[in-house]
Amino acid sequence: MERVFRLVMSCPDNVGIVAKVSQFIAQHQGSILEANHHTEKADNWFFMRNEITASSLPFSLAQFTQEFTPLAKELSMQWHISDSDVANRVILMCSKQSHCLTDILNRWHSGDLKCDIPCVISNHDDFRELVQWYGIPFYHVPMTEDKQAHFDKVAQIIDQHNADTIVLARYMQILPASVCEKYHGRIINIHHSFLPSFAGAKPYHQAHKRGVKLIGATCHYVTKDLDAGPIIDQDVIRISHRTEPDDMVRLGKDVEKMVLARGLHMHIESRIIVHGNKTIILD
Q1: Percent helix, percent strand, percent coil in the chain, to nearest 5
Q2: For the chain, where do the domains classified as CATH 3.30.70.260 start and end?
Q3: Segment (H or E) for 249
């Protein structure tokens, strides 16, 4: 895969933003492989993502940052640039359900998910051998009555491994506000429901009682407000009045792992910009 720089930006909308950024890249002989942009008309806010062939530029990522900064200031940009050759360090957290965990591990092992997985953290010891088969360190941090001690240990492991992203692959624990704020915009969760409907525990059972005809899953960023963070991706599957809660759980697992994988892939490729409590997906 060709090495690219991913330039992601947002700023107040105005005439000529695309032209100015493209001109900057062109004057340095940069080759744009992909360009996406969007304007939120209600907020008059502009979003853009460019993939630039790294070898076409005469300077490094650090030099690009230095050269581009004056233009970014002129346009009042919020922006960042990343190198596709620098793998995102993704820590997985799980509990006693394996479908999301094994799906991500398989995608990573096969090369379909371009990232590093420095470790897996779980509050149960069930999947130690599974994780270690992939050659990945496994940390068992039991959940005791002293929940703060548990989350302090988890945060210590995350920091120890310099995580860029934390994925709650059915971790099934509510993170304290301090953890959510410390890793703001870096924690991805899969919720086994089509949010904002049926938040909290046992959403399939809630859905069954309501007689819904569609069930789904939601990948979202974690905030201190339970199941209320910016939504990254969602999908659904059709059911009927004959579908029992256990069948919903079984069918829902397939949706959950697909939605989580798609959301994580977009996050790793810097295709997501959080704007307020919603996401702009530049795909």
Answers
A1: 35, 30, 35
A2: 4-83
A3: helix 245-268
pLDDT digits (tens, 9 = 90+) for 80-129: 999 999 999 999 999 999 999 999 999 999 999 999 999 999 999 999 99
Which CA distances in Å does 263 have to 33, 150, 259?
A: 22, 27, 6
**Which of the following is catalytic: 227, 233, 235, 246?**
227
Superfamily for 4-83?
Answer: ACT domain (3.30.70.260)
CATH number of the domain at 90-281, please?
Answer: 3.40.50.170
Question: Known catalytic residue: 227?
Answer: yes
Query: Taking the model in full, what pTM does it have?
Result: 0.92
d(Cα 83, Cα 52) in Å, to the nearest integer?
10
Q: Are strands 45-53 and 4-12 parallel, antiparallel or unpaired?
A: antiparallel
Give the torsion sign (CA, 164, 169, 171, 173): positive
Integer-rounded Cα Rg, in Å, for the chain is 21
